[in-house]
Each structure stands twice: as C-alpha cells, then as structure tokens.
Design brief:
By secondary structure, the protein is an alpha/beta fold. The protein is built from 9 helices and 19 strands. The strands form 5 sheets. The chain has a 6-stranded mixed sheet, sandwiched between helices. A 5-stranded mixed sheet has the order 10-19-17-12-14, with no helix packed on it. Strands 15-11-9-18 form a 4-stranded mixed sheet, with no helix packed on it. Helix 2 packs antiparallel against helix 3 and helix 4 packs parallel to helix 5.
Length: 342
C-alpha cells in the first residue's frame, strides 16, 4: 500500500501562497486631455492631431484588461471642462469611447473672441484635488500639444510640490508631449525634476502613443546564509497598464546601508519580468552564521529605479513603483518535507 502525504503537501503550498500574498491596490488611470483648437491645427505651426490622439486614447482604453481599473477622462482647456469615470468593464470602456469619439471642442469668450486657451495649472490642480487618492495607485497621463498660456508660476509651484503629493497619494504622472511645441514645456520639468513624473516626447515619431507601463517589484525575497550565498538574487516585477515592456529596459537595483550585503547593479528586465542580481556579501558564511539572529530574520531593503537612458522614448513610457523589496536573511537550516512510499 502506498501512503502519500498529500494533505501535508497541500498545507505547505497554501502557506507559501499566503506568505506571498499582500494587500495590492487597484489602479486608476486618468487621461488629462488637451482639447484646445491647436489640437486641430488651428494655430500657427500646429499640426492637426485631433483624430490621431482620439484613436490613441481609444486604443489604450481598449487594452486595459483588469475590470477593477478605474478610468477617468478629463478634457481640459484653461480649466478642467468635464470628468468622465468608468471602470474598465466592457460596458464602461464602451461608454468612455463613445464620449471620446463624439467630443467637440467648445469655444469660450476671451477678450471678445470665441477661442480656446491652454492652462496646465488649473487642470492639474483639479486632478490633485478631485481625483488622486491614497486608496489606489494613480497613473496620470497629461497629454498636451502646447505650453501654458497663463498661470505659469502657479504651475511651476504645483510641480515643485508634486513629489510630496505623489508619495502621499501613491500617484505617478506622465507628461506626454504630443508636438514640438509641447516639448518646449519639458524645460520646466527638467528644471524642477519632480519625482514620479516621467517626460515622454512622442512628437515626430510617426504616431501618437499614450500606452504606459507600471512595474511593481515583489514585496519580499529571501536567502538562507547557510545555503544560498553563491546564488543570484531574483526579483519579479508585477506589471500593469497597456504599454509593452521594451526590449533592453534597464533597472538599477541597490541596497540600503547594512553590514551584510551590498547590491548596486544595473540589469535588463527579462521578458518574464524578472531580473537576476549578483550580491556582494560583506562577511563570510561562517561570520554570517555567527552574527545573524536565528529566531528572526534580518531584513535588508532593496530599491529599484529606471536605469540610465530610460528617460528617453520609448523607455520613458515605463515607470517603476518605488516600494522597496525586503531581502530576508535566514540563519537556520531550511525545513524539508520527505515523502516515503511503502
């Protein structure tokens, strides 16, 4: 008679799944959409990209696969004009797409002339006040073909506070420059250099792309200092968004200051969204076993950020969530399960 300890095997597997699980936030994706006349080429030197941008937004929305993702579309000129919210269900996406297709540019009276005006401060402040919240991971796509007509100082001040806002509300922004005129606005962002705000120049590349990718490193990995010091460390990234992982995308992984291990390496993310890292251990195995606690694991933090050159298109369409990876250092023999067949 064969006795297989199947129940024990199931319990072990379940405990591993529970250990790996955690509270993962849902994503909200916001399109802050410039709807001024210049988008239709009705300004000096402005190309007509109205239909092209609509098609890019629609294609991006159609590719959102998680129906828990909330999608927000905000057409803007000098202010946020409207706000449309739906979840990424088939019905919700269809409703948003219908509104985008049917949208007409509204005109306003400025100095006796019926026209439009571009402002970035008021619409961006609207998103901060009315949309972003810490209960979700917010991905903002600010899509414009120009620079602000007014309130430049207020816009710069808001960008100056963006790092604090983004960290408090777990938000990540993409400044998507649709034309060469919009690229002029890059100077402001480069001067302020706010964290969590990528700059993406899609002007002149033969198409408009608003598809982005968010990478989130796994919460924890572990090594056993009695057995694993010769092994490479592997980190897996969860991915969200309709953007594609670009071949050759590089990530810089580094460790916090500690007495045990140093990691400082730039590596390419593989197609399966993993990276392998060589760790420099600051002690021998014998020293590790003598100084590390046995009953609880020492934890070293690893941080991931885009590597050099990843601020250029198309790599700039990807951002990395700045949550650290806990590297747990185990200092006791690993338990094994043996199966006996009689």
């Amino acid at each position: 008679m064969k006795r297989l300890m199947l129940a024990l095997l199931i319990l072990v597997a379940c405990s591993q799944l529970i250990a790996q699980s955690g509270n993962v936030k849902d994503v909200r994706q916001t399109y802050l959409w410039d709807v001024t006349l210049s988008m239709q080429g009705k300004a000096t030197g402005a190309p007509d990209i109205w239909d092209q941008v609509k098609e890019a937004m629609i294609a991006d929305i159609q590719q959102v696969s998680d129906d828990r993702t909330e999608i927000v579309v905000i057409p803007f000129q000098h202010i946020a004009l409207e706000e449309w919210r739906e979840f990424a269900t088939t019905t919700g996406k269809s409703a948003l797409i219908a509104k985008i297709k049917a949208y007409k540019i509204p005109l306003h009276n400025f100095g006796g002339k019926m026209t439009t005006m571009t402002c970035l401060y008021e619409p961006l402040q609207y998103v901060v006040d009315k949309v972003l919240s810490p209960d979700k991971v917010d991905v903002l796509k600010l899509m414009t073909d120009g620079i602000p007509d007014e309130h430049q100082s207020e816009y710069e001040a808001l960008l100056g506070n963006w790092c604090q806002i983004a960290k408090e509300k777990d938000a990540y922004g993409f400044y998507i420059m649709l034309t060469s005129q919009a690229v002029a606005g890059r100077t402001v962002l480069e001067m302020i250099n706010p964290c969590h705000f990528g700059m993406v120049d899609v002007a002149g590349i033969g198409g408009t792309n608003v598809s982005t990718l968010m990478l989130t490193p796994q919460q924890a990995i572990a090594i056993n200092v009695r057995e694993d010091l010769k092994k490479e460390l592997t980190i897996r990234f969860a991915h969200d968004g309709s953007g594609l992982l670009q071949p050759g995308y590089k990530v810089h992984v580094y460790s916090n200051a500690n007495n045990y291990v140093r990691v400082d390496q730039e590596v390419i993310i593989r197609e399966d969204y993993t990276v392998s890292l060589k760790a420099d251990y600051l002690m021998s195995e014998t020293e590790m076993k003598s100084v590390l606690p046995v009953e609880e694991n020492e934890v070293v933090l690893l941080f991931a950020e885009p590597g050099r050159g990843m601020d250029q298109y198309p790599y700039a369409m990807t951002q990395i969530k700045d949550t650290p990876v806990s590297l747990e250092m185990i200092n006791k023999p690993e338990k094994t399960v043996k199966f006996h067949v009689l």
